[in-house]
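Q: Now give one record:
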Amino acid sequence: MTATPNSATLPLLELDVLRSFIAIAETGSFSTAAAQVHRTPSAISMQIKRLEELLGYRLLKREPRRASVTVEGEALLGFARRMLNLNEQALSRFYHPELNGSVRLGTSDDVGTRILPTVLSSFARNYPGVQVDVVMARSKDMSEQIRQGELDLALVTSGSHAPNGEVVHTEQLVWAECAGGQAATQRPLPLSLAGPGCVWREAALAALDRAGMAYRIAYVSEHCAGQQAAMEADLAVAPFPRSLVRKPLKIVDNAAGLPPMGSYQIVLERGSKGSPLVDALQSFVIQSFANL
């Protein structure tokens, strides 16, 4: 009868290997995961091979264009996430001072729904004594609030003009419509936009004017959900960041002849009053965008 190994004889799981495994499981791609963990695809492939040999189970199904977790891989995934979370908490106990208080963060609508939940979740684990007051508003208004000292940090959208803060993300703007819809073929082109001052709106109208294409502003909403509602009803098209186009939306085909709009930037602006709280949140925001 084989003796059950005790804890002293069991091998140790390496956190950097688990981080690579989680990245592959979440992205479904060795190359994308490699970029996230700053390794080469061959390096993380060797990591996974050694991990599977260590555990004695196949953890990933390798297909031509996708990798997916097996039943055993799914079981390990839960443990891996908890282990990395505990590691983060342990390091934070010694790396970060115990902070208490509140910090005021402004964000645009698209960032607030796509990226901010991850930032706030990680920040709360590391600084449980800090209250984050979030304001969701137009970029133009938030920049003014920064100048007036009403916000400590703000994530604002910026076009081609020189930003007043640190650029944390650049993304292509595309024309979006309802999959199977006809709005992109209508003339004048019906548009669903935010109000004046929106970078996406300015880029879209400038591109259409340069192309000499007739359009009409059919729907106006300061929120992405409102603009999307008009698209889903096949009543209009809209300028959206490429990453925001998800089913039932799709990128308008080139055959529709709509002009390119270029890219836009997300800029982190900071008020004049600094504090350890603001420094900490700023670091988390910048790191979150770096990991996109």
